[in-house]
Design a protein that fits this description.
Elements lengths: L8 H5 L8 E5 L2 E5 L1 H7 L1 H9 L8 E4 L4 H9 L13 H10 L3 H13 L4 H11 L2 H6 L9 E6 L2 E6 L1 H4 L4 H15 L15 H4 L8 E5 L2 E5 L1 H7 L1 H8 L9 E4 L9 H11 L3 H13 L5 H10 L3 H11 L3 H8 L9 H11 L4
Parallel strand pairs: 1-3, 6-8
Antiparallel strand pairs: 1-2, 4-5, 6-7
């Protein structure tokens, strides 16, 4: 009996399932997608579905002149099973996110860049090119040397203004860098601020032609799309489509315990776990936590608790370089409850410093 062929990451991410009802064709390859989800996140792709003359079932649309792997990666960023981002491809992915009007994919890529180890000049260039304001704020120079090129002469290392780089930037970005330099020279620069999402709950969940239900949380209304929420959460799929009173109720009351705002990121992970949303929000929250002001021991605990592999790896690479740090971790009461898998990974990492 022959074994079934092993699917590649792109084919398995977009394999047909009970959540897919449409097909996007790129070259000779097919991506099975959820039409409502894709149409909600991209007006461009929604238009393609609306003008498609295909009478096939499931409906199909053709995407031409794009790199299949890049397009599949960008598309996956709105799903609950995103493909891992390759740093070398980020600029191409951002171009596709803009071309196909996928703001959520663009936001995911911005979060990735904020938490990455890419050079500041590269981050500033991408922030300028694609209008990534949070990335720019996180990448602002913090010293005079950040504005300079370093080169070697017969008398040693010399610095000169990086005119070549600054000439590639827009006037708006150059002016912001000028104002930052003035702050640095006057001793008023405190460095880049820690990334904190703006308070935009009302605007994010405002009523629109894409919303068809309301979640009421602590007396405040969140206008949502049933199909999108059902795609991301089996909990809400059952709530909206099961044999419950909520199926015919336009407003649904959501009950929560009082939130500790000092632990927002972890609390959101707990709520995501409770409402079966963790796969969908995991990537976004992981990137936020990586770039947040949460202490590195706490980040380590959260990474272990919610199996956040990238967060765990970054904490080990950035902070765990000596056994004094390890001893500090072991002294925390939560260490006893951490998984053996995490402890083994830490052991293998620390062998390099033994």
């Amino acid at each position: 009996m022959s074994e079934s062929p092993v699917l590649g990451i792109y084919e398995s991410t977009f394999a047909p399932s009970d959540k897919t009802d449409a097909v996007v064709i790129v070259g000779e390859k097919k991506l099975h997608v959820n039409k409502a989800l894709l149409s909600y996140h991209s007006d461009y792709i929604k238009m393609l579905f609306n003008i498609s003359s295909s009478e096939k079932s499931p409906p199909e649309i053709l995407i031409e002149d794009v790199n299949f792997e890049h397009f599949a990666t960008v598309l996956s960023l709105i799903q609950c099973n995103p493909i891992e981002i390759n740093k070398c491809d980020v600029e191409n992915l951002l171009e596709l996110a803009e071309q196909f009007e996928l703001p959520l994919s663009k936001f995911q890529l911005e979060l990735y860049l904020i938490g990455s180890g890419m050079m500041k000049t590269d981050k500033i260039r991408l922030a300028d090119k694609f209008g990534l304001n949070e990335l720019f704020s996180q990448s602002l120079p913090t010293s005079r040397d950040d504005y300079m090129n370093q080169y070697t002469t017969s008398v040693g290392q010399q610095l000169s203004p990086n005119f070549t780089f600054f000439k590639t930037l827009s006037k708006k970005t150059t002016v912001r860098l000028f104002h930052q330099l003035v702050k640095i020279k006057q001793g008023h620069c405190m460095g880049a601020t820690i990334y904190k999402p703006k308070s935009i709950y009302e605007s994010t969940y405002a009523q629109s032609d894409k919303t068809d239900a309301i979640l009421v949380v602590e007396g405040r209304k969140l206008h949502v799309n049933k199909a999108v929420l059902s795609y991301h959460s089996d909990y809400f799929n059952t709530l909206f489509n099961g044999d419950f009173k909520e199926q015919t109720t336009h407003e649904i009351q959501m009950e929560f315990d009082e939130m500790d705002h000092k632990r927002n990121a972890e609390k959101i992970l707990e709520l995501a776990d409770r409402f079966l949303l963790l796969p969908s929000v995991k990537r976004t929250l992981e990137q936020f936590i990586i770039s947040s002001a949460i202490g590195y021991f706490m980040k380590f605990r959260i990474a272990d608790k919610y199996n956040l592999e990238e967060l765990l790896t970054k904490q080990m690479e950035y902070y765990f370089h000596n056994f004094h740090i390890c001893n500090g971790l072991i002294a925390f009461p939560f260490y006893e409850n951490m998984s053996d898998d995490t402890k083994v990974k830490l052991f293998n990492h620390m062998l390099k410093y033994a």
